[in-house]
Amino acid sequence: MDELTSTIGVAALVAGGVALIALVLAAMALVRLRRVRAEQRVVLGEDGTRDLVEHSAGLDSAFRDLHAYVGEAAERLDGRLGAVEARLDGTVAHLGLVRYDAYNEMSGQQSTSIALLDARANGLVLSSIHHRDQARLYVKRVLDGRGELELSPEEADVVRQALEGRPPATAQPR
Asked: Which pTM was predicted?
């Protein structure tokens, strides 16, 4: 124990403490160095031969390529969307239905007119006129919301109903 209290012993204890502190600091520096090297491998690649400027130029080139690809894809989608919209404009967009008693026979309103119109108000009106012993079907073309041939009051009403988006109605007898 006397050896530890002597000048040489105290110097040895201080040197051992300093060595222990240096060992802990070296271990911490080694851990930090490994983290930095891992981060460098992400930036510079696995072999570490690329420099930061080269890597930045590669990222810029990849970004420009991606931007060009997205622009081309957007143009193709715009073209396809235009074609789809043009096709959709020709589908049935407005429809209407009116039931009525064509001959005022109190037969339960068995006659019907149906309007089937596209987005430009073009289409047709189907009218099924029922009588006691017969039924007839009439079709009239509609252009710009008006009948190509003269429309009956019920047919004109069903076209208005379709274009206004009103619910189906039952017409009053004429």
From this structure: 0.52
